[in-house]
Amino acid sequence: QLQLVESGGGLVQPGGSLRLSCAASAFTLDYYFIGWFRQAPGKEREGVSCISSSGGSANYADSVKGRFTISRDNAKNTVYLQMNSLKPEDTAVYYCAAGSGYGCYLDGMDHWGKGTLVTVSS
Asked: Strands, E, within 33-77: which ranges?
């Protein structure tokens, strides 16, 4: 069964760091763009970051630029999101998704994980 599984979420204090992982099973991520999305309580899901299939290019939402870093290890079939200098407004459920098209779009991803909760609070 094709699936993506996120891990690494949890409770962290403002200014802290977390690293999220997105692991695939039953399919290879090599040819997919991978996106991280998040959904805060009462808000719509939004894009956070996207990485190309080769890992050669990545982009970020303005709200996380300079604080978050996306990376991928195709040998491990895993994509990561390093989150530093976390803020309370980063609190959300974080989802990874794989898309066979070019880029990462909410309505254009082929496979989604179930999400991992990140809570930033003192």
From this structure: 33-39, 46-51, 58-60, 68-73
Residue 102 to residue 20: CA distance in whole angstroms: 23
Cβ proximity of 98 and 65 under 8 Å: no
Per residue in 64-81, pLDDT tens?
Answer: 999 999 999 989 999 999
Q: Which residue type sits at 87?
A: K
In DSSP terms, 113 is beta-bridged to: 4
Taking the C-alpha atoms of residue 83 and residue 98, their distance in angstroms, rounded to an integer, is 20
Task: Order the strands of the 68-73 sheet from edge to edge.
Answer: 3-7, 18-25, 78-83, 68-73
